[in-house]
């Protein structure tokens, strides 16, 4: 066992590493290497980074009392698509949108609606790490509390993956302008969700095309949770602004 860490924390962190690698359809040796890297880092004081890149998933929540158990219950409910279990983990007044939508009943309706892709959104959230917010609660994705200076959230996208090709033309076989790993890019002409590639610009001004399924809006879903009287629950699950 790693000194200063419980087996439960180690298992949770390694599981997050495997989830991060699975997005890349990585071979088994890459998964093993990622797990080994996490094991090496867990004993230190720095946040655990699970992939390459400035905004790669990382776990800052290991030392929040009770947070590990809460995140385990959250992950299990999402994996099982268990509406009852997930609703029970929500605060009675959980915020669900910026138009006044709130409460467990509305959350249940969203989870059970055939027109909603909320379960898929939650699957993605659980792969994006955990951060500690200013109120002492937790935020998923971890970067929710990070300052994004000189970035317009409406047009900013996170590249979700390591060494994601940015191509010179919107074709899968087009030549690569460069590779981008877990970093922020800006949409050049707005999001066109029905297209397989989006034209983007990196922070150094390079323009090119990145696959749509490798981009995530900074305004996409985020989950905020806190402990009230010793009981953890998520108080906000929203997208947009």
UniProtKB/TrEMBL annotation:
Residues 1-26 form the signal peptide. Keywords: Signal. PROSITE patterns: PROKAR_LIPOPROTEIN. This is SH3 domain-containing protein. It comes from Tsuneonella deserti.
